[in-house]
Amino acid sequence: MREIFKKQFQEELDLLEIKLEDNQIDQFYDYFEILVEWNKVMNLTTIIEMEEVITKHFADSLSLVKAVKDLSEKEYKIIDVGTGAGFPGIPLKIVFPQLNITLMDSLNKKVKFLNEVIDKLGLDGIQAIHGRAEDMGRDVKYRGQYDLCLSRAVANLSTLSEYCVPFVKVGGSFIPYKSGKIEEELGAAKHAVFLLGGKVEGLETFLLPGTDAERSLVLIRKNSETSGKYPRKAGLPSKEPLK
Known about the structure:
single chain, 243 residues, alpha/beta, Rossmann fold, 9 helices, globular
């Protein structure tokens, strides 16, 4: 099983032009095994088949290299909002160990899983925190502290931007991972992004390896401080998205 894993993963890494040491690929396999084991007692992901985990979780997480070309060179400070089972933050940390990563999730049981993965894989410079984006985005310990905010969470772009842009430093970027055609959603979110101090600066669209699944990385640059009005109290960003 491990050898089959390595073969497929290496093929997908080649498509992303990522080179890994054997011990890093072993870390991914160990991560996969921990994920499957914990998923038996906790709903972490509906994707547990090895081939799908490699493509839809691991390779997808690492596709950030398409939007951030100097990811291997900089010591970016990154927050992964609504990380769930650790995607994209943990795969990025394994491949680019110089990154400083904070994983944030609103479910404490998922944070316990994340800490187990961090411990078992021996990862440094990565922490998992429990909290809601609406609350943490107002906390001076986290607000405006990050070069990059990432999220694969399922929410419309206006809502997701209100959750995430407050975490970003002026000059930094919020990069959401989105599925399918997003032009209409992107158009609808542009004013919300502007209200939060950001601007849509780019869109990287691609197919996941060996699939017809279209993915997009939206590059939102933060040009000015986010107003103290945002994020609004818990529940409002999803119930009444900014327009």
